[in-house]
Amino acid sequence: MLDLNPWTLLTIVALGGITVLTRGFFLISSKPWTLPRWAQRGLQYAPIAALSAVVIPEVVMSQGALVQTWQDARLYAAAAGAAWYFHRRSVLGTIVSGMAVYLPLRIGLGW
Hints:
Order of helices and strands: HHHEEHH
Mean pLDDT: 90
Radius of gyration: 23 Å
Low-confidence stretches: none
Number of strands: 2
Strand content: under 5%
Distance between the termini: 48 Å
Shape: flat
Strand order of the largest sheet: 1-2
Structural class: mainly alpha
């Protein structure tokens, strides 16, 4: 059976209310609202920053520490993918070229 603490229930309801209020804030307002120019400019870089924050640690770290050897297939795959992207500007080609380098090194050589 569920053992539901009243404080837990209150916390869930309060967080749900805050979520609905903050997400619906722009819909509740009757005036049209636009972001300031500096915020619009900053949001252009948000996807790149988020992707970098996820991908770069995955490439250069292993088990929570920096990679200590050059025999890591991820380093070569990331370099090949970056080279392809800067050469052809193709996201699909970037993925394919990175995997074409990664898989033989990982499976074939055991890196």
